[in-house]
Specification:
mainly beta, two-stranded antiparallel sheet, 9% helix
Length: 74
Amino acid sequence: MECPNCSKTMRQGEVRLKKSLWNMLAFGWGSTNLVFRDYQTKTDVELLNSWEFGKAYLCGSCNAVVIASNLGPK
């Protein structure tokens, strides 16, 4: 995949949420969600919760990340 930011080739992998031991001790086992905040509509769209993972692409040149979510029409 070509980076939308710098046009270099991106590496394919996966994205997930990972809590450190310190985070769990300080804040508990509660879930963590990755959300996208739309500046125009001021709404949040959940992309990933603590129990999911998804395809992602990372640019080794500019560190841009593209996340392929499982969001579909609602």
